[in-house]
Each structure stands twice: as structure tokens, then as C-alpha cells.
Amino acid sequence: MSGKRSGGALALAWTCAACGEANGSRPAGDGVECDRCGTAVAVEEPHRQFRRCAVCSSTRLYRQRDFNRFLGLAVVAAGAVLVPFTYGISLPVVFLIDVILYRRVAEMAVCYLCRAEYRGIEVPKRILPFRHHLAAGYEKRRERRLEQAGRRSERR
Which residues are bridge partners to 119 per DSSP? Predict the structure, then answer.
């Protein structure tokens, strides 16, 4: 595992396809429910071996580090701002901080289609890092899906 934390309880961040509400929850029993409309989403057991997204049933997932992007950019910006005062020494320091954080931060799985995020699991090796060409292909599908969700919530 090389220093990566994982294996805790599954945490799922997802957008409901029925109403478009953003949800963040830990599955209880065999699934989760939307906070707004109550739509149920079944989550497979065991979580560590999932083959498809529980929210949209897509089989295309990617792995990424579960790290706050704002914090990462703030560290880089601070290093860049300090360059004139440290004669460039802040850049190798920022690089070392980045390497340490990269090795310590756990990975999560993300669905290309609905962008559901699966945290607290050991991401299977068959789930590969983000690929731009795949993401571009799923962008239009995601937009159609969100439009349909918007129409459904207007009818209610």
C-alpha cells in the first residue's frame, strides 16, 4: 500500500439523478438515500470489489488522490510568493511537501459519468488514473443526465 490510508468505512459523495441534489453519506445497510427526495441507491458489498458505480451503473471509474485542491494550490502559491525572499529555496521545500502529501493521502474512486466519489476504500488496481479522452466522451452524457434530473424535479 506504500503509506496510503484506506480501508475505512465507505463514504459516498453523489448527485441524485432524480432531483439533482448533492449528497454525502455513508451507506447504512445495503445503500444510501437522497437527502431531498428519498431516492434509494443500492451499494454493493463488499465495497472493495465494486465493478460498477452504485449511482449510475457505469463501469468507467478512475482513481485520484483525495486531497483538497484549494490547499494544494495555496501551498504552491505560498512557495511561489516566497521565491524572491528565499532566493528560490522555497520551491524545493514546496516540492518536498508535495511529495510527502502525495504519499500520505489516500486514493478514491470517481465515476466518469456521474462523478460519484467513493472514499474510505482500497481502490482496486483495475481502476486506472484519470484519462482526459474518456472524460470528454462522458461530458455530454452527464449534461443530458442533469437536464433530465432538472425536468423531473420541475414536475414534482
Answer: 11
Q: Which of 68, 132, 79 is nearest to 105 (CA)?
A: 68
* 86, 120: one domain: no
The tens-digit pLDDT sequence of the chain (156 residues) is 333 444 567 788 888 877 778 888 777 667 788 888 888 887 765 455 667 888 888 889 999 998 888 888 888 899 999 999 999 899 899 989 888 988 899 999 999 988 899 888 888 888 999 998 888 888 888 777 777 766 655 655
What domain range is 77 assigned to? 67-104
Specify whether 90 is located in the same domain as 134. Answer: no
Nearest of 26, 18, 17, 10 to residue 114 by alpha carbon:
17
Domain count, the chain: 2
Cell of 21: 441534489
Reduced to 3 states (helix: H, G, I; strand: E, B; else coil), residue 11 is strand
Overall pTM surpassing 0.85 (yes/no)? no
